[in-house]
Amino acid sequence: MKTNDRYEDTALRKVVTRQTEEKERATLSDNFANSVMQRIQHEQQIADIERPTATGFTRYRKVAAVAAIALLVCGLSYAAWEYIIDSPQPPIENRIVSAEIPDGVVNFSNVRLDSILYRVGRTYDHAVRFNVEELREWRFQITWNPNKPLTEFVQLLNEFDGLDVAERNDTIYVSAKGGK
After folding, report:
1. Do both 110 and 78 map to the same domain?
2. C-alpha to C-alpha distance for 1 and 174, rounded to whole angstroms
């Protein structure tokens, strides 16, 4: 294509050159995308080949892990249940007739022994164990000063006939005198 105008000829050449460059860029982009896709597919095939298959041994390990977790949960539940059972429980009869004097002294009047000892044990962070269940229902009129040591209150309770109270470690043991 020949033109008389030099300017038109140069402009036409620039347009053709630009179109050729754009075609090459488009071809380069397509080629690059295809090569990337091929490389990804190849890596996936290699990963599939190298991936271990689940054997019988692997299945047994999974079953063993599930069984171990189930046993752990059962054990924790049992331990929590035992802790709840062994922790000091509030007495059944919560109608405590007591009066607190402003200096902290507590007067129990006609109050069940389990209610008294539950409150005392809570204050000194002790559990209460009754060796003879009938002793829980005994009613007392007694004064307790929480500012004094627990041993003094235990000695005071031991002055009652038929009652043997002992404090060992973090537990208050209540039993009847005479070994019952």
Report:
1. no
2. 121
